[in-house]
């Protein structure tokens, strides 16, 4: 498992908070045409950030952004139903997947396969909570059934997995670039 300095964790935490503010919903700070990074943010927070309270902080930020957007009229109340709170275990499963991957990750190519499998599993479980919670408990679908929910898995999990892969892949490229640059600096210091 990698252990980052508190300074590095703080920098990553601030970056994740800003990324959430820029990509979540329709509010004053959102960046047009960028997909929501929320799922990736929770996964990456689980991977990089050791303090458990960062999960609560990120969930609070997401909620403030969502309810603030609702209050400002920039979003409708369609998604903000009693099922909204199913996001808590959905995001928790992504955070836990990041935490688990932090323990599994090694500095070799096999870790890429482990990462891919972890992301697929995390996306599936997170959608069971978020999409399943919304489908069954939002009150938006009269008489929800398992047969009605199953096609939604095939439709929505790949979309969420695409976003997750995009942001985690970007983070991976940045991670590898920074680690390589730091190693190169250490080699130059030795010589």
Features:
191 residues; mainly alpha
Verbal overview:
73% of the residues lie in helices and 0% in strands. It has 191 residues and is mainly alpha-helical. 26% of the residues are buried.
Short description:
The protein is an all-alpha fold.
Topology:
Blueprint: H1 6-23, H2 38-48, H3 53-72, H4 87-104, H5 110-137, H6 146-190
Helix pairs in contact: 1-2, 1-3, 2-3, 2-4, 2-6, 4-5, 5-6
- Main beta-sheet strand count, sense and barrel state: none
Give the strand tally: 0
Order of helices and strands: HHHHHH
First-to-last CA distance:
29 Å
* Percent strand: under 5%
Structural class: mainly alpha
| Approximate shape | globular
């Amino acid at each position: 498992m990698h252990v980052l300095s508190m300074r590095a964790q703080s920098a990553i935490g601030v970056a994740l908070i800003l990324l959430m503010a820029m990509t979540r919903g329709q509010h004053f700070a959102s960046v047009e045409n960028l997909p929501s990074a929320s799922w990736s943010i929770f996964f990456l927070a689980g991977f990089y950030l050791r303090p458990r309270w960062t999960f609560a902080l990120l969930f609070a930020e997401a909620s403030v952004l969502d309810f603030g957007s609702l209050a400002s009229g920039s979003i409708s109340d369609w998604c903000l139903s009693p099922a909204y709170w199913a996001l808590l275990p959905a995001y928790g499963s992504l955070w836990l997947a990041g935490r688990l991957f932090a323990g599994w990750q090694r500095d070799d190519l096999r870790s890429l396969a482990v990462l891919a499998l972890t992301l697929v599993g995390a996306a599936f479980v997170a959608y069971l909570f978020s999409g399943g919670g919304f489908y069954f408990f939002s009150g938006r679908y009269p008489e929800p059934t398992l047969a009605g929910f199953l096609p939604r898995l095939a439709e929505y999990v790949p979309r969420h997995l695409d976003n997750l892969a995009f942001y985690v892949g970007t983070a991976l490229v940045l991670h590898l670039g920074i680690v390589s640059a730091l190693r190169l600096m250490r080699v130059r210091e030795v010589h």
